[in-house]
Amino acid sequence: MTPLSLQDLEAELKNLDGWTIEQGKLHREFKFASFVEAFGFMSSLALVSEANGHHPEWFNVYNRVTVDLTTHDAGGITQKDIDWAKTANKLA
Ligand SMILES: C[C@H](O)[C@H](O)[C@H]1CNC2=NC(N)=NC(=O)C2=N1
């Protein structure tokens, strides 16, 4: 899988609420009502990630989950990262 061009990436970002590019990675911070909700979100996405063989870099503090996505094998942001972000937005 090859990294998306800047043009394709900008087009995709228009349909991805809350996501930005930070340090070459697709980035978003999610905030939930509680730790349990944040961890439930992470648990659901952990199963999706494992099923698809595509895993996030993420960080949890109480009710916040910070996510950075990149495709390590490709050395950039690919369609796999976009798909992961879309699933995350649906589950949040
Ligand atoms: C062999 C295995 O499928 C690969 O190492 C997968 C695992 N999860 C991955 N996750 C992410 N984010 N990028 C990858 O390149 C990647 N590679």
Automatic annotation (TrEMBL):
EC number(s) given by UniProt: 4.2.1.96
CDD domains: PCD_DCoH_subfamily_b
One Pfam family from the record: Pterin_4a
GO molecular function: 4-alpha-hydroxytetrahydrobiopterin dehydratase activity
GO biological process: tetrahydrobiopterin biosynthetic process
Keyword entries, A-Z: Lyase
Catalysed conversion reaction: (4aS,6R)-4a-hydroxy-L-erythro-5,6,7,8-tetrahydrobiopterin = (6R)-L-erythro-6,7-dihydrobiopterin + H2O
UniProt cross-references to InterPro entries, sorted A to Z: PCD_sf, Pterin_deHydtase
EC category: lyase
Superkingdom per UniProt: Bacteria
Coiled coil location: none
Record-stated family: Belongs to the pterin-4-alpha-carbinolamine dehydratase family.
Record PANTHER family: PTERIN-4-ALPHA-CARBINOLAMINE DEHYDRATASE (PTHR12599:SF0)
Protein name: Putative pterin-4-alpha-carbinolamine dehydratase
Source organism per UniProt: Leptolyngbya boryana NIES-2135
